[in-house]
Amino acid sequence: MLARIAELSPVPVQQPPAPVPSSSSFAAALSKAESTSSGASVYAPAVNAAADKYGLDPLLLQSLIQQESGFDPNATSASGAQGLAQLMPSTATALGVTNAYDPTQSIDGGAHYLAQQLKTFGGDVSLALAAYNAGPGAVERYGGIPPYPETGAYVQQVLARYDQLKGAS
Among positive and negative, which fits the CA dihedral 146, 152, 158, 160? Predict the structure, then answer.
């Protein structure tokens, strides 16, 4: 009918706007798009296996990897951290990782390192994440999350993503 009115009217008739999705359906769609585009699903078997091997929640490990590399297996940071889990070469070597750019090795090494930090810091996830980012020595030196803006933001972002993923499952 709008098409017929448009034919007869000297003033253009606009189509009504498409319905706006509710915030909950938009959030669900956004979350689904993020997890699909992040590559998380591609690496889910390796994440689940490493999480199981080291007694971690796979959603925490997934959140960490998303923050570290955005699931880019070829990521290299300015400081030299490599691969999905962004392991420093010396840390990778200590964990038995021979190729930090190999997704399976990187995920396993990252899970192993995170499990070590959780053990060192009595299961405190925030402190373990801070140690993963800034090093355990910095966490010990400051008696908590170091006052580095990057580390504080890192811990908050990983935990927020983790909470989001837990809520979606």
Answer: positive
Q: Give mean pLDDT, residues 101-109.
A: 98
Q: Which residue has the tokens 């979350």?
A: 31
Domains and CATH numbers, the chain: 43-168 (1.10.530.10)
Query: CA 101, CA 83: separation in Å to the nearest integer?
Result: 4
Residue type, 130: A
Tell which residue, 121, 82, 103, has the closest CA to residue 129.
121
Q: Where in the sequence numbering do the catalytic residues fall?
A: 68
Closest CA to 81 of 98, 64, 69: 69
pLDDT digits (tens, 9 = 90+) for 69-104: 999 999 999 999 999 999 999 999 999 999 999 999
First to last CA, the chain: 44
Over residues 140-160, the pLDDT tens digits come to 999 999 999 999 999 999 999
Q: Degrees (nearest 5) of the Cα angle 100, 110, 136?
A: 115
* SS (HEC) of 101-143: CCHHHHHHHHHHHHHHHHHHCCCCHHHHHHHHHHCHHHHHHHC
**What's this model's pTM, rounded to 2 decimal places?**
0.78
Residue showing tokens 């890192």: 154
